[in-house]
Design goal:
This protein is α/β, with parallel strands linked by helices. Helix 1 (17-33) crosses helix 2 and helix 4 runs parallel beside helix 5 (141-149). It has helices spanning 17-33, 59-70, 86-94, 108-118, 141-149, 177-186, 202-208, and strands spanning 2-3, 37-39, 47-53, 75-80, 97-101, 122-126, 153-159, 164-167.
């Protein structure tokens, strides 16, 4: 997986606090109108990797948008490079998008670590499943980024059953990746995805093994 663009500090929506306040006044009532509630206490940490799961629908990142506004940090997210075409690409970059070529993993982790090193504050949003299809194992790139950058992992969830969006407390990687991945995934077994058939729970993978 390779980042396609140079990771400089391009113009970003979070450079304009008045826009964020305006979007909050629009997005949060819309979330409530859809029957959702949010339970987000922004972490005190200025830099962290935020993972979003379960990821079973394109709507997940749209629902994530109001949560991102509540974090009060400069938010970035990765999305496949083929989407960055014309005006759409410019808008995505302004919103914090980083174009990623999934066909090449060279230097991916190190480039993200360097981006954290250069930033005064930064939240990098990653869907650890890497796809909307059911996968038994999460991709580990987010873990290695957090570990090598010395930042915690914050878990965000979208529970379609209770229509509740929220985050759990920051988790600092210990270096024991097998144990840490189990701990990171465990709470998600209580979450109802938008499309349950596309999400493989941790307890089911352990049962098969």
């Amino acid at each position: 997986m390779q980042v396609v663009e140079t990771l400089k500090r391009p113009p970003n929506i979070f450079d304009h606090p008045w826009i964020i306040r305006l979007l909050e006044r629009i997005a949060l009532p819309l979330l409530k109108w859809r029957g959702w509630t949010h339970h987000v206490e922004a972490p005190a940490e200025k830099k962290y990797v935020l993972i979003l799961a379960p990821h079973t629908s394109n709507w997940d990142f749209l629902m994530m948008f109001p949560v991102g506004l509540l974090l009060k940090r400069r938010v970035k997210f990765m999305i496949k490079h083929s989407v960055f075409i014309g005006p759409v690409g410019s808008v995505l970059r302004w919103l914090g998008g980083i174009a990623v070529d999934r066909s090449n993993r060279n230097n991916f982790v190190q480039q993200m670590v360097d981006e954290f090193d250069r930033a005064d504050e930064m939240v990098l949003i990653i869907a650890p499943e890497g796809t909307r299809k059911p996968v038994p194992q999460w991709k580990q790139g987010f873990y290695h980024i957090a570990r090598e950058a010395g930042v915690p992992i914050v878990r965000c969830y979208l529970d379609a059953g209770s229509r509740r969006a929220g985050i759990w407390a920051p988790f600092y990687p210990t270096g024991n990746i097998e144990a840490d991945m189990r701990a990171l995934r465990a709470d998600y077994d209580t979450v109802v995805p938008r499309h349950p058939e596309k999400f493989i729970r941790l307890d089911s993978t352990e049962t098969r093994s």
